[in-house]
Every structure is written in C-alpha cells, then in structure tokens.
Design a protein that fits this description.
TIM Barrel; 44% helix; single chain; six-stranded mixed beta sheet; 13% strand; globular
C-alpha cells in the first residue's frame, strides 16, 4: 500500500497515489482538511489519520475530535462515512509506555461515537524493541474488541496471522472455528511435508 501525504491540498499528487487493492481504491493518510476531488473521481475509500496541523496528541479525546472533523469534511464532499476508515495512530511504546493505551482508548471512543471502521499501523507499536511480531499481535488482539477492523501489518508473520485468527474466533467471527482448524491443518501438513523421510531399515 502506498501512502499519500497527510494533507490533501496536493490534489494532483494524491490522485496518483490512490491505489487499487482487491478491486477497491483506497487513499491512505488524509487529514482533517480532506478534499474529495480525487477521492470522488476514483470512488475511493479513505483512511483518515487522527492528527492535525498541531501534530499528534497523546490525548484520546483530542484524536476523537480530529476524527469528527475528518468524517464531517468527508460527508461535506459527498464521501459517505462507511467509506472512511479512521486511523487512531499507533506509536512506539518503547518511547512511551502509555502510547499503546492511548491508541486503544481512542479506538473505543471512535467506535462508540462515530461507528466507523478503524485501522492502525500495528507494526509501529514495537519499533525499536525485541520480538516485534509479538507486540504487533498483542495490539491487534487488544484492538479487535475495541473496534479495530483493519491494520497495516505483515500477514506472513505466523504469530501475527495466528493472533488475527484467534481474535476472530474469540469474537464469534469464525463459525465453528473452521478458519482456525483449517489453518492448523495446513500448517501440520506443511510441517509433515518438510520433515525428512524415515531412514530405510
């Protein structure tokens, strides 16, 4: 996924940065002064990041206020709120141990008041710390019951992929655990295929 700048006044540049993912166009990282010119032209969904000209606040209520502005501006330009994904901002907890809680609290506020889809750059949380995939998986699992519906993370990392599957199962989104069981069977088959054949007697 390619990102445009956090502001949308550079319309021609942004039009070139809108990308196609799974037959739906997605514009990443728009700010509270979102303009709908390029978005409406391409019928894109947008990710609105909850910082403004003052920067990134660590106060969840301030981030919520920015999210309100993003939704309002989007609707002014004819972009329905179901096409707006709010990024509640995930920052490295190695720099400040309270930042993970700020992200989760913002998710809950956005979910309860605005009812829109929520995304984060989940891999940011463990930047500079050891065992980063475990921290990415943790913020995603904790975020799912608080409204997280999408994340930028490495789905090829087994620990992260398992966490998402487990979260879906625990939240009742995996009927009879079929996705979880299917993943286990696939991994078991791959492990068995990779095992050396028994020695001939």
């Amino acid at each position: 996924m390619r990102a445009c700048g956090s502001q949308f006044q550079h319309r021609h540049h942004c039009a070139n940065q809108i990308v196609r993912r799974h037959e739906r166009l997605l514009q990443n990282a728009v700010g509270s002064n979102v303009s709908g010119v390029a978005i409406k032209k391409h019928k894109a969904a947008v990710i609105g990041i909850t910082n403004d000209q003052k920067g990134i606040s660590n106060d969840p209520k301030v981030r919520l206020a920015v999210a309100r502005k993003i939704i309002a501006r989007a609707e002014e330009h004819g972009i329905p709120r179901e096409d707006v994904i709010i990024d509640t901002i995930c920052m490295p907890i190695g720099a400040n141990q309270t930042l993970g809680r700020a992200t989760l609290d913002t998710m809950r506020l956005v979910r309860d008041e605005l009812g829109v889809n929520i995304s984060i750059g989940a891999g940011n949380v463990g930047f500079g710390l050891p065992d980063r995939p475990a921290l990415t998986a943790s913020i995603m699992l904790l975020g799912m019951p608080n409204g997280l519906t999408a994340a930028i993370a490495n789905p090829l990392e087994p620990e992260i992929y398992r966490a998402v599957l487990a979260g879906d199962l625990m939240l009742g989104k995996d009927s009879f655990g079929m996705k979880w069981i299917g993943y286990y069977r696939k991994r078991s088959a791959e492990a068995q295929a990779a095992s050396p054949p028994p020695a001939a007697r």
